[in-house]
Every structure is written in structure tokens, then in C-alpha cells.
Amino acid sequence: MTTLVLADHDGKTVSDATLRTVSAAAALGAPVEVLVAGHDCAEAAADAARLAGVTKVLHADGDSLAHGLAEPLTALIVGLAAGYDALLAPATAIGKTVMPRAAALLDVAQISEITRVIDAATFERPAYAGSVIETVRSNDARRIITVRTSAFAPTERGEAAAPVVVVPPPPPSLRSLFVGEEGTRSDRPDLASARIVVSGGRAFGSAEDFRRYLEPLAAKLNAAIGASRAAVDAGYAPNELQVGQTGKIVAPDLYIAVGISGAIQHLAGMKSARIIVAINSDPEAAIFSVADFGLVGDLRLILPELERLL
Amino acid sequence: MKILVAVKRVADFNVRIRVKPDGSAVDLANVKMAMNPFDEIAVEEALRLKEAGVAEEVIAVSAGDAGTVETIRAALAMGADRGIHIATDGRLEPLAIAKLLAAVARSEAPGLVILGKQAVDDDAGQTGQMLSALLDWPIATFASKVAVSEGSATIVREVDAGHQTIRLTLPAVITTDLRLNQPRYASVPNIMKAKRKPIAEMTAAELGVDTTPRLAVVKVAEPPPRRTGVRVTSAAELVTKLREADAL
User: Fold this and answer.
1) Architecture of domain A3-167 in CATH?
2) pLDDT in tens, chain B (248 residues)
3) Model pTM?
4) DSSP-assigned letter for residue B193
5) Are B111 and B57 in contact (CB under 8 A)?
6) Do B139 and A97 touch (CB under 8 A)?
């Protein structure tokens, strides 16, 4: 009985999502091993070895794993699966792409985005944009799971290091080629793991105002910036900042929703925050139904004042 | 080439979802049903590739009970050329759907299969990935831009840190993200025309697929509601409240 976690990492360290997935894996009750797959990622493998509760790290390193392409990573996981009863990955873009492929090749169901471990085969997961919580029990010989990381606390980094074992990388895919990538450089904390998130919606009216009013407040609070789907669709914010059912799921200590109406698809991405603040000019906006503190008014007046007071 | 598009019939995304009193499942009786929004994007993308001369035929496929035919018909009304309905009853998991789609893909031999990245009912987000693995075709998930030429597809994907571009050799599988396109509405003449378009009927047994669920649904419940909040009247009062709540 052993559990394998597919690590999310940047080559140097494993991410906060990995720490939380290790916690979810530990709740299954079996020893937890971590797979660090990538290119030049020995430091990340060493980092994974320090995580509390991790008994072994598998380190797969090679060109074929450089960009998280689905085909080689699936082959690697399927090749290792025989040694494990459960395989978990954080529900990141890579985890969500690779784990269902591995599940299909192993002929098992995947359990997507678990939020609670009841026992080694029984889990809670949200469906219908979080309108319902399903409890499901796996009847398969092996469990393939993605983890909604906001629902689990991160494990600690300890002093003792687990052994790191090198495993051979898979051959490259001949039918899937990496062409390029681009991201928005930001000095702000990572949206998925920030303690405070300041999120903006359609009410900002333009990309300029989105930045002009939201960024000073985020800077003052050392907060990550998020956005509603409407704000992303309108081009006020890049896609990677979208919070919601089909974007990022966050559960920060404090979530400040500004000019966001509060469609259920947005609430699905943030309603587990400890404290929710809603600022909106429409007193009837649905966002107020989940807000601990609601303030009705013009964001162009409220945000500068808020920033001054903090 | 042909493009196969998978469409799923789901509760309309605007409907307030309720759980059956016995906690066994979501209550879908008398609930307005619609095509999964991501699948509408998939149909639209296939139609645009056909209009650009990249594809000759768009085939819409779905599995489910008799009501599913209505969703296939909606894809035909958007402009798909013909439909395939795989008749099943009972709960279908993504693995079973992927096996059914793989069987159809093997006989239809499309150059592309396009699916939504997730269905807004189960929020599983698995079927396209599973299909690509079963077929051993390359995949691009979360597509926000698709260009097809000379046996390959170049796809921009929405990933955690921004965008990634990859190039796949066809045949391949693509799952759609929100910003790939804005799906068209079916015009009344096209809705009329769709009634005459052919929909082939087949069963899971004919395709040799066992659709028995692998997961037991133990319970379905509504999440606990959040505690009721308070309205504040000024930014200053908000800051005071946040300090009291130890949130700053």
C-alpha cells in the first residue's frame, strides 16, 4: 500500500499545490512517495525529499519532460503505476491533462478535484460549480485522483531528507511538439496560494481602470490579483487570473471582490475563502450573498480611500 | 478530413441545482437541459474549420438516453452535417464515454476530435484526455486558438502561467477553453434544415463497450451555506471590521 504524488514544481522547488497534495495523499493512510518529473529539476527533487510525510522521491529528468507535454508524462506515470495503490496530482493544467490519460490506460475511473478524504477509497468532490458535494467510493483496484488543493493544508518542509531515486525519462513524443509559451510577468504573489486576493470584475470598464484602481490596493495588501470571467473576456485581465468554476479555485484568508456581480460560476472559485468582502454599486448583486462584509458604492471612490486607510 | 465533435446534454448552466430529498442524486426532473457550453464552443470551432476549407464534414456525437437526440439536433442546427446517437441508460462516467467515442473515432477516422474541456454538470474534465490516451492520439487541452494546416494543428493552450503553444500531428484530440470562440446561434432556417439531417443510432453493446460505473455515488448533498454577512457603510468601517476579524 503506497501512494504516489505527481509534483508540480518550477525546477528549483515544489509548489504550494504540491505541499497540499501531499497532505491529501497522507490522509489515505499509506506511505507517500513523490514523482518529480522535468528537465534539470534535481533541486526540486531534493526539495520534495524534505516534505513531512514523504518516504521516497522519484526523480525523472530529461528533454522529453521539459514542458509538461501530455504524452511522455503519461507514459512515465503509467510505467510507474504498478507499484502504487493510489496516484494523486494537484488539479493544475498539467495534472488535469495527464491524470485522466493515465487512468484510461490503466482502465480505472479518475476522481476529479477531491476536497476531502473520507477513507482510502471514499472522497468528497464538488460538482455543478460547487452547488453540490458528491461523496464517491471507488470500486477500482487503483485510485487515480486530482486534488483541489485549496481544500487541503500544505504539509511542512522538514529537516530529514527522504531518499531520491532516479528513474529513466520516457522517450519524446514524435506527434506533439512544444512551440512556445508566454506568461504575464507579475511581482504579485501567486493567485493560487496568496493569503489575500483582490479580484475585479466587469464594473472596472477598461483594462486601464482595472490596473489603475486594483493594483495599488493589491500592492498595499501584498495580495494576488484575480478577475471574473467577464473581466477576462473583456480583456481587462489575462486568462490566468480568472477565478471560478473553469478558472482558478482559490481559498485565501481574505478575498475582496470588487465590481463582480457574483455568478455561481465565479462563487465556485472563491466561496471557500475565510473572509469575503464584496464592493459593488448594485446592492442586489449576488456576490453579497456570500460576503462577510458588503459595501455598496462606487469602486472608483472606495478603492483609493481603502488604500489610504490601510 | 472529418471532424468529430462530442456534445453532452447537461442541466442549463443558469438553473439552480437541487438535490433529491433522499440525497442520492441531483434532481433533474423538469430541469431545463442544454448543450454543455464548452461543447458549443467545440461545435463552433469545427464549423469554422469546415468554413475555412480545412474539413469537409462535421459529425456531432453524443451518448445518453432519448433526450440526448435533442442536443445532437442542436449541433446540427448550428451547422454540423450529421449526428451519431449512442443509446445508453443509467449513469455514464467519463471513462465509459471515452471508450464509446474511441469506438466511433476508430470507425469514422476523423482528423480531429474536438470536445469541451469539462462538462458543467459533473465538472470532471476527463473525457478528451481519456479519449486521446485510448486512441494513442496526441492531445491539446484548454485550447484558446487552433490553426490547422498540412496534417498538423498548432494550438495555443490556456495554462496556469499564461499560454503554451504546441503543434500536434493529426489525427489529434483538442479540448476547448472559454475564449476559443463565440458560438453562433442557430438560425430558424438552419433549425428547420437540421430536422432533415441524419442521426445514426447505435448502442454501447454494438460498440463493444461496458458502461458499468466504476464509482459508487454514496451521497449527494448541498454544501453548508456561509454565515450571513453584514453591510458596512464606509471604507473606514470596512477596515475596522477586517482588523477585528484578523484578516489584514
Assistant:
1) 3-Layer(aba) Sandwich (3.40)
2) 999 999 999 999 999 999 999 999 999 999 999 999 999 999 999 999 999 999 999 999 999 999 999 999 999 999 999 999 999 989 999 999 999 999 999 999 999 999 999 999 999 999 999 999 999 999 999 999 999 998 999 999 999 989 999 999 999 999 999 999 999 999 999 999 999 999 999 999 999 999 999 999 999 999 998 888 999 999 999 999 999 999 99
3) 0.96
4) H
5) no
6) yes
Selecting from A133, A274, A305 the residue whose C-beta is nearest the C-beta of B235 gives A305
Which residues in chain A are contacts of B244 at CB distance < 8 A?
none
Would you state the cell numbers that stand for residue A39, as one nine-digit string? Answer: 528537465
Chain-centroid distance of CA B119 in Å reads 5
Cβ atoms of A125 and A24 within 8 Å: the answer is no
Asked if A240 and B158 count as a contact pair (C-beta separation under 8 A), the reply is yes
Rounded CA separation A180/B163 (Å):
8
Quote the cell numbers at residue B166.
Answer: 504546441
Taking the CA of residue A176 and the nearest CA in chain B, the distance in Å comes to: 5
A93 contacts in chain B (CB < 8 Å): 141-142, 157-160
Residue B228 maps to which CATH number?
3.40.50.620
Q: What is the ipTM of this complex?
A: 0.96
CATH for A196-309, among 3.90.1280.20, 3.40.50.1220, 3.40.630.20, 2.60.40.10?
3.40.50.1220
Residue B142 exposure: Cα atoms within 13 Å on the Cβ side = 22
**Burial environment of residue B222 by CB neighbours within 10 A (0 to 12, 13 to 18, 19 or more):** middle
Sequence spans of domains, chain A = 3-167, 196-309
Taking the Cβ of residue B87 and every Cβ of chain A, the question of whether any pair is shorter than 8 Å is answered with no
Angle, alpha carbons B150-B152-B101 (nearest 5°): 120
Domain that holds residue B147: 2-244
Which residues 18-77 on chain B approach chain A with CB closer than 8 angstroms? 19, 26, 38
Contact B7, B60 (CB under 8 A): yes
CB pairs under 8 A between A and B: 247
CB-CB under 8 Å, A274 with B218 = no
> Alpha-carbon distance A80 to A74, whole Å?
10
Burial of B71 from C-beta contacts in 10 A (0-12 / 13-18 / 19+): buried
Q: B-contacting residues of A 9-48, CB under 8 Å?
A: none
Give A-chain residues touching B122 at CB under 8 angstroms: 112, 127
Q: Which residues of B touch A232 (CB under 8 A)?
A: 179
Beta pairing partners, A32: A3, A54
> Residues 6 or more apart from A265 whose CB is under 8 A from it?
A129, A229, A244, A245, A246, B13
Q: How far apart are CA A112 and CA A134, in angstroms?
A: 11
